Amino acid sequence: MFNEHAAGALKVERELHEGFFVDFGLTHEAIAATPLAPTNVAYTSYLLAVAYGSPFHEAVAALLPCYWIYWEVGKELERRGSPDPLYSRWIGTYASEEFGSVVRAVLACADTVAAGLGPAERDAMIAHFTTTSRYEWMFWDMGYRREAWPV
Predict the structure, then answer these.
(1) CATH code reported for the domain at 37-145
(2) pTM for the full model?
(3) pLDDT digits (tens, 9 = 90+) for 28-38
């Protein structure tokens, strides 16, 4: 399931973002030369560390906010609406029923995995879920603040 999600995300998000690059007049060279912001590096490093160094149930919990928060934000922004077609494209992608079905599958996976665990393992899941939820907030805030490396 996660392999399919990764392949789908690469396809859908690449198309979405490449459309934005064109709309904003950005070249692939300019994008490739832009360093990742510190929060982005920290968040992705955390996710990779959990995925490579922790049990499956912890990795699922760490990934869950990546799905769930985008869907919730997409649905809320769709309710509010946007007159900007660029924002509307982004909102439509993450508010869609298609994306919602993916999110529900990951929620079901997390619930199924957690049901067979003891309290200590579920606590570890909660800790990773909480940390990556915070990173999701920081990721959005990073974009708002146009975060860059201080040195």
Answers:
(1) 1.20.910.10
(2) 0.84
(3) 887 776 778 99
